[in-house]
Amino acid sequence: MVNPERFLADLHKLRSFGASGVGKGVVRPAYSDADLAARDWLGAQMRDAGLDVQTDGMGNLFGLAEGRSLLLGSHSDSQPEGGWLDGALGVIAALEVARSSRESGGPPVSVVSFQDEEGRFGVTTGSAVWAGHLKQTDADALTDHTGVSLAHARAGLGRRVTGPVDTGRFTGFIEMHIEQGPTLDSSGDRIGVVTDIVGIRDMRVTFEGEQNHAGTTPMHLRRDAFQALAAFSTGLSDRFRNIVTPQTVWTIGHVSLHPNASSIVPGRVVFSMQWRDAQSDRLARMETVIRALADEIAEARGLTVSFGPMLGLDPVAMDAALRACLEDAAEKEAPGAWRMMPSGALHDATNVAALMPVAMVFVPSIGGISHAFEEDTAEPDLVCGLRVLARAAGLG
Ligand code: HGY
Ligand code: MN
Ligand code: MN
């Protein structure tokens, strides 16, 4: 049987690496000192649980059971301002299930904490490389918002790296996660069994205009990068009107304006353009609109536009058989208080689904808040999710 007290204690301990901000927030971006310290601690817990600890070249951390086994886990890096449960929950729940299973002579269970799920460099970068979706050489060329390359960041792994971990040794993958949206919190359900994970596209866009004096440059002569971005953002909502559904989302979440000074007409803006939907063809139509509108705006305002590499993942359905295990487990642990639902957030499970059967289980997020320091889940719900995961993994 799983040990809820030990599980919660470990979850709080993991939060202490990078604990920051209000509430239970963490700042533990991929490859930061806090992230590496957390992974060192996690590796020690895996070793104490009798697992063989391995780190691949990306920094994905595995605790391996002997022979072929089920793989459980998620990620332990965070957003620049993250909550304590996003990713961490799935990793610590996996550790607890693997450890309990060994203690009670249960089935072999391995554990993983993927690296850079939160996309400091890409989109779910660690699992994307492990699963073969992204070539290591292409990944290495990616840079974060400050210009640091992934190649440079992962060089900091040093002697932690043991070598590649064979994807063929696992029979399937289950990721437990917080929902990160309002569905379970509003319905009162305690468990969500995921049906599908949406697709995503993400690229950097640059408008290059002319830097000039903010007092002397007449409005009609300006080639203002910020004004171009403002027009682009407003125009996009209009152009998308006949393409998107109420479930489609798009976000300009990172903006770097140069030189970012009150008295200078900005000459350059680099921004992130991300969009998500359950259908790949809609994602493609949105891309066409994005590129065309950016070209039009640049042309009309005397700027140039350029686009960075297109990153993305297609929508995936969860494996029917593994999902059924979670549904049975949910009905036993939360009778009448669980539902099937799609995931609007991205997960490592998407990449792993190219290799083996994959399923996911959610617990509620209070107020539907995540990617914020305020993210939280009631502890009885965390434990309920742990028990569902353990049952689905074959622990009675
Ligand atoms: O952005 C996402 O959906 C994930 O949390 N990285
Ligand atoms: Mn996550
Ligand atoms: Mn996240």
TrEMBL record:
Zn(2+) 1 binds at H75, D86, H177. Its EC number is 3.5.-.-. Residues 199-298 form the Peptidase M20 dimerisation domain. Keywords: Hydrolase, Manganese, Metal-binding, Zinc. InterPro entries: Amidase_Cbmase, Bact_exopeptidase_dim_dom, Peptidase_M20, Peptidase_M20_dimer. Belongs to the peptidase M20 family. Homodimer. This is Hydantoinase/carbamoylase family amidase. It comes from Roseobacter ponti.
